[in-house]
């Protein structure tokens, strides 16, 4: 699902921003910000997406003067976003825990706040979050953001065949999870 602005225009804005054009820089961010936030929301979680989106564009702007345009600026930014998400997860895992953080979703479900009529989009987002990191990255890049398999391979830094395999397996995982979380049980998770 590419935005209204084509990749060539976004790449031109990136190159112009790298030469100091502030208006081109603003257009570059506007063109990609929503997609980058959505990508990061799936990779690291909605609560972190805004901060990680900002970090992605900070890293991108520091590197814009060296952006050569060998790939589209869109693919380049998603590669940066993926690295930001990986760095975030590593930092969270490495950080010592000082207090128990409540699992608000489980608490709400236990209190009956989430009912069988829960929105399927929320359920799908939850199911995507349950995929392994590699499958989630490939699936979100191709099926949610609309990147080609070649672009997704660049972003995920792996061969195209690996992306195809990860997307196929992610689809299988999602179908199985969706069926296990069928209409009679959707929104009534037990564990």
From TrEMBL:
<dbReference type="InterPro" id="IPR007627">
    <property type="entry name" value="RNA_pol_sigma70_r2"/>
</dbReference>
<keyword id="KW-0804">Transcription</keyword>
<dbReference type="InterPro" id="IPR039425">
    <property type="entry name" value="RNA_pol_sigma-70-like"/>
</dbReference>
<dbReference type="Pfam" id="PF04542">
    <property type="entry name" value="Sigma70_r2"/>
</dbReference>
<feature type="domain" description="RNA polymerase sigma factor 70 region 4 type 2">
    <location>
        <begin position="124"/>
        <end position="174"/>
    </location>
</feature>
<dbReference type="InterPro" id="IPR014284">
    <property type="entry name" value="RNA_pol_sigma-70_dom"/>
</dbReference>
<feature type="domain" description="RNA polymerase sigma-70 region 2">
    <location>
        <begin position="28"/>
        <end position="91"/>
    </location>
</feature>
<protein>
    <submittedName>
        <fullName>Sigma-70 family RNA polymerase sigma factor</fullName>
    </submittedName>
</protein>
<dbReference type="GO" id="GO:0003677">
    <property type="term" value="F:DNA binding"/>
</dbReference>
<dbReference type="GO" id="GO:0006352">
    <property type="term" value="P:DNA-templated transcription initiation"/>
</dbReference>
<keyword id="KW-0805">Transcription regulation</keyword>
<dbReference type="InterPro" id="IPR013325">
    <property type="entry name" value="RNA_pol_sigma_r2"/>
</dbReference>
<dbReference type="InterPro" id="IPR036388">
    <property type="entry name" value="WH-like_DNA-bd_sf"/>
</dbReference>
<dbReference type="GO" id="GO:0016987">
    <property type="term" value="F:sigma factor activity"/>
</dbReference>
<comment type="similarity">
    <text>Belongs to the sigma-70 factor family. ECF subfamily.</text>
</comment>
<dbReference type="InterPro" id="IPR013324">
    <property type="entry name" value="RNA_pol_sigma_r3/r4-like"/>
</dbReference>
<dbReference type="InterPro" id="IPR013249">
    <property type="entry name" value="RNA_pol_sigma70_r4_t2"/>
</dbReference>
<dbReference type="Pfam" id="PF08281">
    <property type="entry name" value="Sigma70_r4_2"/>
</dbReference>
<keyword id="KW-0731">Sigma factor</keyword>
């Amino acid at each position: 699902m590419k935005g209204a602005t084509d990749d060539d225009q976004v790449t031109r804005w990136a190159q112009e921003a790298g030469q100091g054009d502030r208006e081109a820089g603003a257009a570059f961010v506007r063109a990609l910000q929503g997609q980058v936030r959505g990508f990061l929301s799936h990779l690291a979680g909605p609560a972190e997406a805004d901060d990680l989106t900002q970090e992605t564009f900070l890293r991108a702007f520091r590197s814009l003067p060296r952006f050569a345009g060998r790939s589209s600026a869109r693919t380049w930014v998603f590669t940066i976003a993926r690295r930001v998400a990986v760095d975030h997860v590593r930092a969270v895992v490495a950080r010592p825990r000082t207090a128990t953080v409540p699992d608000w979703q489980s608490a709400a479900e236990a209190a009956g706040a989430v009912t069988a009529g829960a929105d399927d989009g929320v359920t799908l987002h939850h199911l995507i979050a349950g995929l392994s990191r590699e499958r989630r990255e490939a699936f979100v890049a191709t099926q949610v953001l609309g990147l080609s398999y070649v672009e997704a391979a660049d972003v995920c830094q792996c061969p195209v065949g690996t992306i195809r395999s990860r997307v196929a397996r992610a689809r299988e995982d999602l179908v199985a999870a969706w069926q296990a979380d069928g209409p009679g049980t959707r929104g009534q998770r037990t564990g």
